[in-house]
From TrEMBL:
It comes from the Bacteria. It holds the Pfam family ABC_tran. Residues 273-287 have a biased composition (Basic and acidic residues). This is ABC transporter ATP-binding protein. One of its GO terms (biological process) is L-amino acid transport. Residues 250-287 are annotated as: Disordered.
Length: 287
């Protein structure tokens, strides 16, 4: 049995597809800046943020989720995104963090129940029942301690827990990290089906090839700055991805930012703003 059912997920978000728009976002830890003047959008569908370790991908999601201070404009459907985490969750934005962060001594069902902590009690049972219908294998494991499950199984619980709140925007932080290839395929397929069912998905990933295969749009983040963006299928064929992340050879050694300058611009994509750094290359968009 697969972890999820073949039918589209039913979570009530399809009528309110979220559109996240970010302008001039900066964030970091204390006096140490990590993100500098980011500008991007997460439209209805699945948007992926790519980049190497240390690029600032997790910091980006933490800033959007209110876990660290941020500067700049963050709009959800035209309204300012709150700064406090519980208000962000109440507004329909939910993060599945890196490392899953389940409660290992609680059962699968108890972990799912915690995902509905802001859901009215009158709706909580129905939400959990719906998630168990969407993830039928979790119903079989509902009494199992989360800490006794494999990493991939725990990741499924973490995604299901997030869906209990019926998010409008689901943020996934490195969902494939440390998982077997088969489980990676299943998780990314689930992310795609969630997006197709009406929840906007913003995912950060290092598995470039597989992430772009399921995404609608993508951005490349390097050292806290966006260096390329575009439709996922075209971005996968671009120089910035093939040379820097997929190991394609080039006769000219180039950085991702220089490679991106050779791509065709996408006039409809969100254009990142220039950063305050000497001779900083302007991010390019691939159409």
């Amino acid at each position: 049995m697969m972890w999820w059912r073949e039918m589209a997920f039913e979570h009530g978000a399809a009528a309110r597809r979220a559109h996240l728009k970010v302008r001039g976002l900066s964030a970091g830890y204390g006096a140490f800046p990590v993100l500098r003047d980011l500008a991007f959008e997460a439209r209805p569908g699945l948007t992926v943020i790519l980049g190497p370790n240390g690029a600032g991908k997790t910091t980006l999601l933490r800033a959007l989720n209110g876990l660290i201070p941020r500067k700049g404009e963050v709009l959800l459907d035209g309204d300012d995104l709150p700064e406090k985490t519980h208000e962000i969750v109440r507004g329909g934005v939910v993060l599945v963090p890196e490392g899953r962060q389940l409660f290992p001594q609680l059962t699968v069902l108890e972990n799912l129940e915690l995902g509905g902590w802001l859901v009215p009690k009158s709706e909580r049972s129905a939400r959990i029942e719906q998630v168990l219908a969407d993830f039928p294998k979790l119903r079989e494991r509902s009494g199992q301690l989360a800490g006794t499950m494999s990493g991939g199984e725990q990741q499924m619980v973490a995604v299901a827990r997030a869906m209990v709140s019926s998010p409008r925007l689901l943020m996934l932080d490195e969902p494939s990290l440390g998982l077997a290839p088969r489980m990676v395929d299943e998780l990314l397929a689930i992310a795609r089906r969630i997006a197709d069912s009406g929840t906007t998905v913003l995912m950060v990933e290092q598995n470039v090839k597989k992430a772009l295969a399921v995404a609608d749009r993508g951005y490349v983040l390097e050292r806290g700055t966006l260096v390329a963006s575009g439709p996922a299928k075209l971005l996968a064929r671009s120089t910035v991805i093939r040379e820097t992340y997929l190991g394609a050879q080039s006769s000219e050694t180039t950085t991702a930012a220089r490679a991106a300058r050779d791509a065709v611009r996408d006039p409809n994509a969100a254009r990142p703003e220039p950063v305050e750094a000497p001779r900083q290359a302007r991010p390019e968009r691939i159409s």
